[in-house]
Amino acid sequence: MTADPTRLICPLTAATIEGMRSAMAQAAAHGADMAEIRLDFLDPPPTPQQVADLVEHCPLPAIVTHRTAAQGGRYRGDEAPRLAALHAAARAGAAYVDVESDVPPSQWPSGPVIVSQHDFARRPADLADILARMDRSGAAVNKVAFASAGPQDALAALEGIRACRKPTMAIAMGEHGVASRILARKFNAFGTFASLDDAWASAPGQPTLAEMRSLYRWDSIGPRTQVFGVIGCPVGHSMSPAIHNAAFAAAGLDAVYVPLRIEPGAEHFNRFMDALLERPWLDARGLSVTIPHKENALTYVGAENCDELSRRIGAINTITISPQGRLAGDNTDYAAAIDALCGAMGIARPALAGRTVAVLGAGGAARAIVAALAHYRAATTIYNRTASRGAAIAQEFSCRNAALDPASAIDAEIVINCTPVGMHPKTDASPISSIAPAVKVVFDTIYNPLDTLLLRHAAQQGCLVVRGIDMFVNQAVAQFETWTGTPAPRDVMRRVVLERLRA
Ligand code: NAP
User: Fold this and answer.
1) Torsion from C-alpha of 304, 308, 311, 316, nearest 10 degrees
2) Is the distance from CB of 196 to CB of 19 less than 8 angstroms?
3) Over the chain, what is the mean pLDDT?
4) For residue 207, what is the DSSP state?
5) Does pLDDT of 409 surpass 90?
6) Which residue among 385, 477, 479, 501 has the greatest number of ligand 1 atoms within 8 angstroms of its CB, and so is best to mutate?
7) What strands, in cross-sheet order, belong to the sheet with 62-65?
8) How far does the centroid of ligand 1 lie from the alpha carbon of residue 479, in Å?
9) Where do the H-state alpha helices sit in 205-361?
10) In ligand 1, which atom is closest to the CA atom of 429?
11) How far is CA 304 from the centre of its chain?
12) Would the pTM count as exceeding 0.85?
């Protein structure tokens, strides 16, 4: 293990010598600890003199890499000039030269070497053996990078880092493996790659330097950092990492929150959860669960380990993991929605009894809200596009149902939209074309945009409007408090959502 903190390495993938020089300066200005000069991106391939000049002018310690096409790089020429360029880099004082594991050690440059192996198809079945071989080699640093099929591959990469004696990088590439890059610092990996911006990324799933430092709190990650994350598909645009990481920072907690993309299907969900629970050294303490895994999560955690309302809803959005690995499930959507509604109306929850409510939609969000409304004995009617789906929920929670017809007047005191109609990017749509005079309150669970077309119409008619952001912030606050047992910095969390929606 290296005593140095894990380095943020910025890959430089310019096609020209001038471009490389400019990128080096930018990498230094953006706070990278090292630069990786990707010679294979240069067109034409550089001469040994050009390589030496690049290394000597690099303002950061340089890793020099000249990756062949067979290893996922761009170099297609002969082996002799490729190795000559790497030797020139070592002679010029490169901090490290990256050499693929199929190059015989007799041909390695004389300076410090990173021995690397890449698999762009899958996680190698013999990952542990590959790393053990590297660990026994004469290289200074081990590096493996492989395509990931689920976040369990990121956990396997972190396990590989832990198992090595020497400084190691093990990277699960792609959106499924992002956690292997962020959590590398917790396990004192040699380094992790972070690009100048998305256009400069040298591998799929690579965050930018700015994301690492400001979104994922890179500098505060250490060996005791507790791990949280969001499970879903997709999760790339989830705002949860921004909200929860900002909240951890504001509360001064040693914790980080990462995206965990899991493909649809209980088998994928279960595979990841099994892999997580087999690795207590991850210090995983909590998970947000989003589409399409809320029902899978309840089944995995076990109804007996979930609160009563979650059991009635049949889905959870929050998993809490004890230090002993015991799981508990909650559904914070329920309380989040009801409190957003009651807070705006200035009433306590029991005052919902007898009020007429129209719920538009019969998906997961609608189900949680209908369960809450039933609990507080509101007079609810579900309006859904697919009538049979609405009817099934109506029967379960003893309320009425009807087909959702955008043209028909919905006669209820409170209207709650739980369909995605009007959500970004199709913001010129509304689930209903007019709002009946009897309607006094309109709650749109959509939070992007903040003010949907439905809410704008409602405000013009003098209705009280309730925005989806209030529900969204409420559920994140409830998750934070469930996991940490400390009051959530609500204002910070709300500000983060507003900043991101207005960006
Ligand atoms: P879901 O399970 O996929 O359900 C979507 C529902 O909307 C279904 O009933 C579906 O009807 C209906 N629907 C979809 N497209 C429609 C269309 N073009 N016209 C009419 N109805 C349509 O999704 P969900 O998890 O319930 O989420 C629904 C929405 O709630 C999301 O888009 C999100 O904006 C919002 N939400 C907000 C929060 C928050 O914190 N603010 C939290 C969760 C969800 P069918 O049954 O006919 O398919």
Assistant:
1) -90
2) no
3) 96
4) P
5) no
6) 385
7) 168-173, 141-147, 113-119, 96-100, 62-65, 34-38, 7-12, 191-193
8) 21
9) 209-210, 240-251, 266-277, 294-301, 308-313, 332-345
10) 18
11) 29
12) yes
